[in-house]
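Please produce the structure of this protein holding phosphoenolpyruvate.
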Amino acid sequence: MQRACAAALLSTQKVVIKNPGHSNDDIAAMGIIRSLGATITEVDRETITIESSFLSDPAAIVSKEAAVNCGESGLSIRMFTPIVSLCNNEVLINGEGSLVTRPMDFFDEILPQLGVSIASSNGKLPLKVNGPLQPKNITIDGSLSSQFLTGLLMAFAAAPLTEAVTIRVNDLKSRPYIDLTLDVMKKFGLQVPENNNYETFTFTAAQPETLNLKPETLTYTVEGDWSGGAFLLVAGAIAGDIHVRGLQQTSTQADKKILEALMAANAGIAMDAKGITLHAAPMTAFEFDATDCPDLFPPLVALAANCTGVTVIKGVSRLAHKESDRGLTLQEEFGKMGIRVALDGDLMRVHGGPVKGAQVHSRHDHRIAMACATAALKADGPVTIEEAEAINKSYPDFYDHLKELGATVTGGLEYRDALNEIYSEK
Ligand SMILES: O=C(O)C1=C[C@@H](OP(=O)(O)O)[C@@H](O)[C@H](O)C1
Ligand SMILES: C=C(OP(=O)(O)O)C(=O)O
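Below is the modeled complex.
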């Protein structure tokens, strides 16, 4: 959904988005493109339209506001900063909550090489950028996060290119997220660079594709979210039966790999064209490499807590700069539910349950709240999650979905108000 918002901003066509997201991160992305002049209209609960003239005159648009707020979304700030830098006036880029402490020093190093002046607060927010960004051959480090590359790919595709340019990437992590970026770019008619084994991405000389004549409207359907869906699948494996629809099995999303983990744990899982069915079954410890799908750690720990034996998950070093330091947070919060989580360099060892009822804290991290709630389904008593509303960052319907599946959940938050501020009058 966030990528679709960015691509719609860069489109000269009227964009129809089907199945739009409405999480806080989606609201942040919609707020950003509105600050950059886009008009977003709700057609019905399943459809919105976006109209933007950003590419025809980015400077004129940004001079009106000169500030964008990325909320708490890492993807939004890292994707939209290079895009905002296409403008030739100063823009303030800010955010809130955990985003304020997450590393952005990548931009201090890279943007000046592309003709953009930048001021940050020692590599953190707020950022002030002044472009216009001019694509050039550059080499970047992809080991901290793929999100910076996502932003550069979108911005390069939107800029006029007088000659071929190459982004060279060292040690790219979270590769499937780049596949998703390229997939969205393709579906929106942006120039898709030649990807040479995730080491170089080469754009050919071209005007932005979006300036070419196209049909008046472009329709894009947002895929079901495997990252949120992973919690439901694990919930079904622990306390099923459940049937999950809407997760595309041909998706490039990284977190589709949850299926491999469920199979490795001997979960009761069956798939057909209609969806995925989970039955509660005795499960056994498994080994899994989550280096390129780091968001799976929280549901994997909930799964492993319900397996017999010690599960080993690789990729802990990827977790340090998420909404919380997720390796440590998982260790501490699952520890309260009687689950031993040992951290050993890049490896996490999760000792299977039983899971105990306890009072835990989301640490303001959506995936920690959802992991604790999922593990609670088989706990020997109630699990109380403080700051449980953290889920609204990515999956505001999560507790409602658990309730629909028969779990007892008290609490919750109404989301329409924030959304209504985003949509324009029809
Ligand atoms: O591009 C994206 O949508 C994301 C990429 C991943 O980040 P990293 O590339 O930093 O691992 C993932 O953890 C994050 O939640 C979302
Ligand atoms: C959505 C997430 O992160 P980010 O803020 O990095 O986009 C996440 O970690 O699940």
